[in-house]
Amino acid sequence: MITKFIKRILRRDPMVKHTQANNSGAPKRIPKKAHRIDPHLLSKNAVKVTHTLQQAGYEAFIVGGAVRDLALGIEPKDFDVATNATPDQVQRLFRKARLIGRRFQIVHVTFFGKGHPEIIEVSTFRALLDNAGDHVAESGRILRDNVWGSQDEDAARRDFTINAMYYDPSSETVLDYHGGMADMQKKTLRMIGDPAKRYREDPIRMLRAIRFAAKTGFTLDALTRAPIAKLSNLLQDVPSARLFDEILKLLMSGYSWAAIQGLRDAGLHHGLLPLLDHILDSGEDSKGANDFVKLALANTDQRIQSGKSVSAGFLFATLLWPDLLKNWKANIAKGMSNLPALNDAMDDTIAAQSSGMTIQRRFESDMREIWSMQPRFEKRVGRYPYRLIESPRFRAGYDFLLLRCATGEQNPALGEWWTLFIATDPAGQDGLMASAKNASGNNANPVKRRRRRKPKEATPVENAPD
Predict the structure, then answer these.
(1) What would the pLDDT profile of 52-95 be if each residue is shown by its tens digit?
(2) What is the spatial distance between Cα 148 and Cα 122, in angstroms, rounded to a whole number?
(3) Are 109 and 96 in contact, with CB atoms under 8 Å apart?
(4) Residue 58 is part of a domain; what is its CATH number?
(5) Nearest to 206 by CA among 160, 145, 150, 140
(6) Phi and psi for 122 in degrees, rounded to 5?
(7) What pLDDT is recorded for position 359?
(8) Structural domain boundaries, residue 21
(9) Which residues are known to be catalytic?
């Protein structure tokens, strides 16, 4: 009876399970002089979280991509912490903490400072799920992951060796279970365990492999790459919201064009990104569209690498523009007038993309507004320029226009005119509009100067095309 009771406790209590299994896989302990992680690159809040957990009697480490970036001498953008404390136990230790997730429950600990709030993601060591029953689908994909285990199990559950290292800020020691530090020195991206099985557990790992390879410049291990093309159809079973988040990470990695090329080389772009299919699979016929997308992604990468913000709506507007432009021209060729042709082209383009990855509505709204501005930039007389410049999305629409000008799709003189219009005073703006009127062959009478509104008196922007 007592023996059965003890076994039942061991099955239920993740802390007991951790203690029991902790000796099954000894990690390599890498001291400071070997890993050379600069403590100044650490987030003070991430260190505070580990110290708080350790002082409460738990194990706690900075883990995953943050350790990888630190070892490469790169300041991480996000910090994750892994611990043997359960989510409920973590939440009780921090005032600004909330539980999130269903498939795998984690805790977001939020810190408010002078800048933007920082969120430290805290996860509990995960158990191996070989015999997890209803936790795993027939295909092998993990459905639920709220089974806690030991640190060595957690390390075995992580995807790539370079992401399975644990850093303890208090001792400045890295625990390396799967040779991640050696793989970093060889610039190799290697999957832990059987790659095909790991991709079936979570198909998103295929996209992560491409993203990490593009970001780090590492080479995918041959065994890690081999199953990807055959298993690409598994991505169709991934929830749309999760797929969108991963694609967004890929496009905003700072190495988006390299990542997209990686998707093509691995055979992952078909269906997943219909907006890129015709660009990546065709040659000279799509040269202009290809140039536009490459320039847009290059600008995005440059901004991200410089630490500047990037609008996801703007990014998807640029990626879908070649397809929209084709549909717009086709509608005009059918006899539709300009603006109705554009509106129908927007609907058709977004509907075609939704067959793969569904773009979230909040970004779809931004895309539509950026697109609808493009014909309005050609109206440079009367009240049109003033009304357009007051739009909340004007800067995004203007930047989009400059991309079109840079690739020769729009007359560069139009972009130069708007650049001058933004920078000049009211008298200069009147002169620019008069010159635009003359250039269009219209009556060259001076344009009546429009009274300048104070910012606080600005009228609401009209979103519909004029």
Answers:
(1) 999 999 999 999 999 999 999 989 989 999 999 999 999 999 99
(2) 13
(3) yes
(4) 3.30.460.10
(5) 160
(6) -115, 125
(7) 82
(8) 2-186
(9) 78, 80, 159
Q: Which helix (H) or strand (E) holds 87?
A: helix 87-93
Between CA 131 and CA 7 the distance in angstroms is 17
124: which strand partners?
A: 83
Cα dihedral angle (410, 412, 414, 415), rounded to 10 degrees? Answer: 100
* CB burial of residue 278 (10 Å; 0-12, 13-18, 19+): middle
Query: pTM of the prediction?
Result: 0.73
Nearest to 157 by CA among 172, 146, 170, 168: 146
Domain count, the chain: 1
Work out the angle at residue 332's Cα, subtended by the Cα atoms of residues 328 and 333, and round it to the nearest 5 degrees.
115
Beta bridge partners of 83: 60, 124
HSE-up of 399 (CA within 13 Å, CB side)? 17
CA 14 distance to own-chain centroid: 33
**Which residue is associated with the tokens 């320029």?**
385
Residue 68 inside a domain? The answer is yes
Domain assignment present for 433: no
Coil/strand/helix, residue 115: coil
Give the integer Cα–Cα distance in Å for 164 and 176: 7
